[in-house]
Amino acid sequence: MNDTNSLDELIACLHCDTLATSPSLAAGETALCPCCGNKLFSRKKDSINRTMAISLAGLMLLFPAITLPIIGVGVAGKYNDASLVDCIMLMINDDFYIIAFSVFLFTIAIPSVKIFSAFYLSYKIKRKQISSSLLIFYRSYHLFDSWAMIHVFFLGIIVSIYKLISLDELTVGSGLISLLLLLLCSTLISITIDQKLIWDTLESEFAPKS
Ligand SMILES: [Zn+2]
Questions:
Q1: What span, in angstroms and rounded, lies between the C-alpha atoms of 60 and 62?
Q2: Number of structural domains, the chain?
């Protein structure tokens, strides 16, 4: 029986629900719906290498983004600066537990897990070391990628800080620059990662052999 295999080769158009046979594409090519011309999927160029390079850069930025000063405030001759960890600790000391938890979750936990999952996935697929743990990492990547809209929120915060800097009392710390680059890496990963390529690789490895 090869019914399962033939079903696996079908792909549905998200625009008109037409079922088409999934073609095998070369890097850079795009499959279009035969009925409405809508894009079915595309094979991204050099996806694994690009994702691995960007996620490695993101991992290297993680530590400075968390520990280096984000902003510095100078008032009446005194100068203070604070890192992301300092900010979270201050919020906990002032009993702002929910805000402290949200900042930790959206600025440290989610980007870290997403970037590490993307790096681990691309590294293992490049080395052709396909294991069942890759499925767990891919699921976690999917889960945290859906929180990518939080970048827009952070862009708002960064713009607000930039406006405050015109008051001459605040200075941008290297931690903020690292955090900005980290969020940029996280966004770029969403662009470079070829989710269908990863699914196809994992599926061909774990599909029941007949
Ligand atoms: Zn269509």
A1: 6
A2: 2
Same domain flag for 104 and 183: yes
Measure 94 CA to ligand 1 centroid, in angstroms: 55
User: Do 38 and 53 fall within a single domain?
Assistant: no
Give me ligand 1 centre to Cα 114, in Å.
31
Cα 21 to averaged position of ligand 1 atoms, centre (Å): 12
Same domain, 104 and 184: yes
Query: pTM (2 decimals)?
Result: 0.76
Same domain, 38 and 89: no
How far, in Å, is the centroid of ligand 1 from the Cα of 22? 13
Residue-wise pLDDT tens digits, 138-160: 887 887 777 765 665 665 666 56
Same domain, 84 and 139: yes
Q: From ligand 1's centre to the CA of 30, what distance in Å?
A: 14
Integer CA distances (angstroms), 19 to 2, 14, 43, 78, 153, in order = 18, 10, 19, 67, 38
* Apex 41 CA angle, 38 and 47, nearest 5: 145
- pLDDT of 1 > 50? The answer is no
